[in-house]
Amino acid sequence: MPDEEFEKLINGAEQIGKGTDRIVFAVQGRTDLVIKDSQLPLHHGNFTEWTVWHALEKMTQEVTDNVPNTELRHHFARCFAISHSARFLMMERLRPLQSGDPFQQFVATLPSWLNDKKPSALGRTAQAVSRCSTTARSIFTKC
Known about the structure:
alpha+beta, 24% strand, globular
């Protein structure tokens, strides 16, 4: 999608979060989606997140006799679209973790290559399923 299409979707929308490199906006007319707007000249965070999501999706399939991993993708917020420049990323909206959520137990199930495991990088779906909301700062050299 062109950047302009994403800009229309967040024009006047509520800002719901801000990280080191990106601002997170609600999507007009959708309570289940967010758009992450990269604030850097190179939009590597969005590109990484998009790439990781598609790798997780591919892992659910049997490819060249590898055993499929159908569970890992359920630990991460779904990505739905990325803009042509990668400035904008549309993904599943997660709610903040609640005080009673089993934070440490969930973190223990996350892969070692994911290094951003702080509570603000995690959330829960509308169905109260814990998920990671970002993979932008993943370290793939430690796999």
